Amino acid sequence: MKFDRVKSLDAILATAKKKSLNRSLGAFQLTMLGIGGIIGTGIFVLTSEAAQKAGPGMMLSFILAGFICMCAAICYSELASMVPTAGSAYTYTYAVMGERLAWMVGWALILEYAIGASAVASSWSGYMIGLIENLFHIEISPLWVNSPSAGGYINLPAVVITLLITWLLILGTTESARANAILVGIKVAALSLFAILAIPVMNTSHFEPFMPTGITGMAGAAASIFFAYVGFDAVSTAAEETRNPQRNVPIALIASLAFCTIFYLLVSLGAIGSPLGAQPITGADGSILAPGTLALEQRCRAIAATGTQDPLPCSHEALAHVLRSIGWTRIGNLIGLAATIALPSVVLMMIFGQTRIFFTMARDGLLPDSFARVHPRYRTPHIVTIVTGIGTALGAAFLPVGTLADYSNSGTLFAFAMVAVSVLILRRTDPTRVRPFRAPAIWLFAPLAIIGCIYLYLSLDLIAILVLPVWGVIGLLIYYGYGRSRSYVGRGIEVSDSMNS
């Protein structure tokens, strides 16, 4: 179904050529960008929440979420090879289903990238504070590291790291990618060390019962830890800054996702088999407590008061806590240090992705022209990077990490589903167009991606489910109040003459 304003693929490519970004990224840097975006808060932080929701069955949750992402990645690969420009799902939707749905996808991607970056920055703050307290035995007032909902004033460390990363992104894409590659190496080394130490000593009896919360709990955990995979699509947002994107983008998309899925399974295997186990915490009546609730927090405090080690679902630094439980206290602290050093790469990736979405929407006239201005020296969209950085810092300062992650997932699932719909429609409406990467079995993988995204969306908590339609209504008000009347497609022009080149 097409709407009244569809921007053809030829017009999109022509616009990108007139107003382009510097192509400086190769296949390795692009893959590192994907891995940097994927490995982060999900595995370092949300492992505890997955254990509380699904117990040892969280391994199936990682597999389910990873499979759905792989189906979406195959769809992304075909479209990214055909349209190697910034914009990702927003651009693909514009070319296939029209401006209104494209705007909605772009608007939903704010939930994925900007809100997701806030979540990662907030979780980084928790690791950093935990590391300081464990290494130096320095107590830091929670008033300056907690959100107001947790009894604090502001999460100040999260604000600082977000603003530093914003500054790095303004300096340039190549510089950011180099820094990201170093941070990715640190994360991969940390997770490898965790698996090497934890898996050989795992207790297989801790895998029983394997699914204490059943299919529903496993699906709920998959919906939450879907955030662990968010980030691979940032590869497609960097297509316009990639050398030979028709080859390098599909390679980076699929390679980064496959690599991270294997790592996640190895890490979850070690965590479940540790002395902590992964069985959910129950209340006095035997019912399984919901993660993030006051009841669970109070139960965890009661367990700690007995002198017993905190169970995995109670930990705010899961992997470091597991290693301490098997006698590797110093290595556990090093894992915490690695997370503290490396998690900023995920914030970098997410802010990077959001700025490229805004850049493309502004280049189409749906947002102010200033959002598409490129810095004369650094050749980066500096204005939109500053705006995104400030917004991300505010979210990290005042909102809790778990809530941010679920909100981010709702926007991501919508965008992924729209990409899968777009690739199917384009196969029917433009079958002869050259496809440098032609996705295999697309009539199988695309429907699986759509069904899987809908299933995970409906498995989210009710508030997270409601966030997407409410956010969408706000977006439509802005579209009809500003963007529609200024759209270049609607006005019959391709690119604003007022933009600086």
From TrEMBL:
The Gene Ontology CC terms held by the record are: membrane
Statement: the UniProt record of this protein carries the keyword Transmembrane: yes
In terms of InterPro entries, this protein maps to: AA/rel_permease1 (IPR002293)
Tell me which UniProt keywords the record has, alphabetically: Membrane, Transmembrane, Transmembrane helix, Transport
The record's GO molecular-function terms, alphabetically, read: amino acid transmembrane transporter activity
Q: How does it sit in the membrane?
A: Multi-pass membrane protein
User: What are the subcellular locations of this protein?
Assistant: Membrane
Which residue spans traverse the membrane?
Answer: 27-46, 58-80, 101-130, 150-170, 182-202, 214-239, 251-272, 331-353, 383-401, 407-426, 438-457, 463-482
Coiled-coil blocks: none
Q: What is this protein called?
A: Amino acid permease YhdG
Native organism? Komagataeibacter europaeus
